[in-house]
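INTERNAL AUDIT FORM
Audit reference: QA-55
Scope: verify that the stored structure record matches its stored sequence.
Auditor: D.O.
Record contents follow.
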Amino acid sequence: MSTKTVQDTHILQSLPELHRSLVDMVSAMNRPENDAAMLEKAGLALERALFPLLVLVERLGPIGVVDLAGRVGRDHTTVSRQVARLEALGLVERRASPVDGRVREAVITPRGKAATDAVDAARGRMALELFATWSQDDFDALVRLMRRFADGLNAATEGAS
């Protein structure tokens, strides 16, 4: 039997457990109370629904509303209204795309960056608790493998578009 066949069999046998783990992680990350706790620990008074948009604009911006909506699984008209609220709060700015002037992109403001920095600090404190019992090697392996998985998943989904 070839090594490839053994590896394929192993992948197919382990795939349900990987999928369960991913569903558990996504479910935990999508719980409204977790976003509320993160905002509280960061000292931010922000509507929970705006929180993931703010973070994505900071991480991926400048970003168009349609792209942003696709990444959070919401209708683009809803996201457009939410980005307008972030703009009214001074956390993001909207401007015409230099590539296509018809597209309005959201970009983080200094005030928005300060807010996401506070979220990052809160996330860091929470992570220290979560990973307190992990060895450095285990943590480093997790980071490396998650990046590899995310890159592979992004490449596979971009190819499917």
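Auditor finding: record pair retrieved intact. Helices lie at 3-30, 32-42, 51-60, 65-72, 76-88, 110-130, 136-160.
Action required: none
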